[in-house]
């Protein structure tokens, strides 16, 4: 995918499904095999964009399964599929239990704390946080980047500006703002 077509989940309506499962000690290998099977099965569905399996950090800490879908409909089709039901019908002996499930859409993915199952902050807090992250990018971009692009056609300069802003928002300002405001966002 080229940068000019890159989008963040809020732009594309993507859905991220995060599932936490607790696995009884001694049954990790069976669970991991089951988890990889169900994730691979989901990956074959139209609209499935990718997945991840995150092992427990040890002790009583959960394992995490992550699915990304193109939209809510693709997620629903997988959730209601006979293939998914079959995986759950044949998981006895793996000794694992779902302890939390979150469906993240749009900006919520920027505010999800790794390893946390807390709900996303209210949308008004996310909007304020995003504004605080956008402001320095816009200010610095307008001062340093835009003047250097004035000789280019509008469509080209706009694509370059959007790409730079998107990368800075995704990897610099949003993670920084959400980390700095974590206490306020979680109240």
Kindly list the characteristics that best describe this protein.
single chain; about 190 residues; alpha+beta; four-stranded antiparallel sheet; 4 strands; about 20% strand; disordered N terminus
Q: Number of helix segments?
A: 8
Poorly predicted ranges: 1-11
Care to count the β-strands? Answer: 4
Strand order of the largest sheet: 2-3-1-4
- What structural category characterises the helix and strand content? alpha+beta
Largest sheet: 4 strands, antiparallel
Q: Report mean pLDDT, rounded to a whole number.
A: 79
Residues in helices, as a percent range: 40-55%
Alpha-carbon distance between the termini?
Answer: 37 Å
Radius of gyration: 20 Å
Strand content: 15-25%
Shape: elongated
Could you walk me through the main structural features you see in this protein, from its secondary elements to its overall organization?
By secondary structure, the protein is an alpha+beta fold. It has eight helices and four strands. A hairpin with an 8-residue loop joins strand 2 and strand 3. It is elongated and about 65 Å long. 17% of the residues are buried.
